[in-house]
Amino acid sequence: MAILVTGGAGYIGSHTCVEMINAGYDVIVVDNLDNSSSESLKRVEQITGKAVPFYREDVRNKEAIRKIFKENQIEAVIHFAGLKAVGESVREPIMYYDNNLFNTITLLEVMNEYGVKKIVFSSSATVYGIATEMPLKEGMPLGAINPYGRTKYFIEEILRDLYVADSGWCIALLRYFNPIGAHKSGLIGEDPKGIPNNLMPYISQVAVGKLEKLHVFGNDYNTVDGTGVRDYIHVVDLAIGHVKAVDWALQHTGCEAFNLGTGNGTSVLQLRNAFVEATGVEVPYVIDPRRPGDPDEVYADATKAKEVLGWTAKYGVKEMCEDTWRWQKSNPNGFEK
Ligand code: NAD
Ligand code: UD1
Fold it and tell me: Would the CB of 13 count as within 6 Å of ligand 1?
């Protein structure tokens, strides 16, 4: 029996494959490599010493997905495949709705055909929209504020409806906070195409000399030092959260959302300073205006994941910075040689 990992060549997917294999699962990956490289899977094989069967396919291609289910005994799916850049989703909403919604619907149809009713879905803290209260708890009202966020919210709703219609399903909606860091080996990590949108890859590309300086988006927020506060989570902790969610899904039926965060807030300047301290490398910065849509503070209450899945994040910001840097400095051009 195997676990199908859609989008498994990507940043979180590749780290999750490592942790799933470490936990004794067999994984099979399907990815169209639109935002990744098959080199990441070779590195997963190098880290684990195990072969990772790989299908280069688009999850919207129903025949291709059927073939994977026909050729393998799949017992559960971890569904990462999708587009994830907020700004791009505002410019290209149809592309986002087409990919994220249709790939999920196609996958669910094929899972139903093959009687596979266990799915772990990559949701996001973005489904909480603009919250008025912190920390975020799973029961709080939802309401995304951009097309990317709405795809996550709509997919959550689709999955909740599916469970209402058929209580034989087990669905884990994992709401990630801000994943950063990389595997300790330095062999896999985040490899954004073009100029990074997110803070940590931007910091590490300044450190490695690819970008000149960090632009801090606003220092007049209502936070500890005026810069935006987020709940950064080590990608390996996040990956282990998926192992726990699969363990849970295989034993239960239900449809539950779980926050995967540390519960700790870190400001932009605190993260930049922690990076400089952990690596000894300077990261020059300037203060720019706020980025539209950015809230002051976002952090998780991850009690439910602890109580139900037995999961808590172990790594702190120091390790997140050290591990990001190990990956970045040994792979300045990502997976491209
Ligand atoms: P990523 O882009 O590195 O990984 C996504 C993978 O899916 C890529 O390898 C891409 O090639 C593949 N893919 C996209 N569309 C596909 C399709 N139709 N068929 C097959 N493969 C397809 O992104 P990531 O950071 O690893 O994120 C994984 C998931 O987690 C995404 O769904 C993302 O929205 C979600 N998420 C990410 C973050 C984050 O900060 N990275 C936060 C919250 C949620
Ligand atoms: C972003 C997405 C969110 C997604 C999350 C994880 C937006 C508006 N939101 O969240 O939907 O779930 O990534 O992938 O894109 N910052 C700078 N300079 C930079 C980059 C960021 O100061 O060059 C600041 C931001 O203003 C913010 C913090 O750093 O305060 C974190 O930003 P980022 O890494 O983009 O994550 P989020 O905005 O939390």
Answer: yes
- DSSP alpha helix (H) spans, the chain: 11-22, 39-48, 62-71, 86-91, 93-96, 102-113, 147-165, 199-207, 235-251, 268-279, 303-304, 317-330
Residue 137 has pLDDT above 80, yes or no: yes
SS3 329: helix
Are the C-beta atoms of 80 and 5 separated by less than 8 Å? yes
How confident is the model at residue 192, as a pLDDT? 94
Helices (H) and strands (E) in the chain, counts: 12, 13
Q: Does the structure show a pLDDT above 80 at 337? A: no
Which ranges of 170-267 does DSSP label H, i.e. alpha helix?
Answer: 199-207, 235-251
Nearest CA to ligand 1 atom 15: 82
Cα(291) to ligand 2 centroid in Å equals 9
Q: Could you give the C-alpha distances from 301 to 139, 198, 199, in angstroms and in order? A: 11, 22, 22
Q: Token pair for residue 72?
A: 């393998």
CATH architecture classification, 2-180+232-262: 3-Layer(aba) Sandwich (3.40)
Three-state DSSP at 55 gives: strand
Distance 198 CA to ligand 2 centre (A): 5
Q: What is the pTM of this model?
A: 0.98
